[in-house]
Amino acid sequence: MTITADPRTFDAPVSRGSFDRSAETSAPIHPVLADRWSPRSFDAAAPIDETALTAALEAARWSPSAANSQPARFIVARRGTEAFDKVAATLMGFNSVWATSAAVLVVGVVATTGADGKPLRWAEYDLGQAMAHLSVQAHHDGLHVHQMGGFDVAAIAQAFDLDDTLTPVTVAAIGTLASPDALPDEILRTRESAPRTRLPLAELLLANE
């Protein structure tokens, strides 16, 4: 089956950012999905919208999981708290430069074993689904989310006394979008404004009969 370009026909982006980051898709998709992106520039003065944050976490709670095992756990750390400082201290590289401007840092943690002590085979996959639901709901409600893998896993586990059945997998910065000019580094500012790209859909389909 041949994939042909077909510009999306939905209305204006749901995101209220300062510039249009809407994806150019090969078929129309929901505006919340097309307009969701991962910024690095957050308003360091804006408090978190608690209603929107709760909705995002609730969306994560209701994401699907294998046999309804629900292995996703979260550390929610608001800017200005000791928990936020603990999470921020584990961030690596450029992440430590920009992510501390976010209103909240959420650590996605996976429970690797069930109540019966048996390994949860699909736990990380299920956490990924939970984080996806969280990010889409947050974007719908006017927040932005940027997930990171660049952090010290062992340091997070130690800082929050996690036992060996709980593994930190990702850290998500959540907050209100700011101008790229607010970023302190030119490389980051360039990345913030660069075109969004994805591989063509046809390259992702191993079979499409």
Quickly describe the structure.
By secondary structure, this protein is of the alpha+beta class. It has helices at residues 31-35, 50-61, 82-88, 95-98, 123-140, 153-159, 186-193, 201-204; strands at residues 72-78, 104-111, 144-148, 166-175.
**Assigned CATH superfamily of the domain at 49-191:** NADH Oxidase
Q: So what's the overall shape?
A: globular
CATH topology descriptor of the domain at 49-191? NADH Oxidase
| Counted beta strands | 4
CATH architecture of the domain at 49-191: 3-Layer(aba) Sandwich
Rounded mean pLDDT is 90
**Biggest sheet layout:** 4 strands, antiparallel
Taking all Cα atoms into account, the compactness measure Rg is 18 Å
Structural features, described:
The chain is an alpha+beta fold. The protein contains 8 helices and 4 strands; from the N terminus they run ααβααβαβαβαα. It has helices at residues 31-35, 50-61, 82-88, 95-98, 123-140, 153-159, 186-193, 201-204, and strands spanning 72-78, 104-111, 144-148, 166-175. The longest helix has 18 residues, at 123-140. Keywords: Oxidoreductase. This is Nitroreductase family protein. Residues 34-86, 95-175 form the Nitroreductase domain. Belongs to the nitroreductase family.
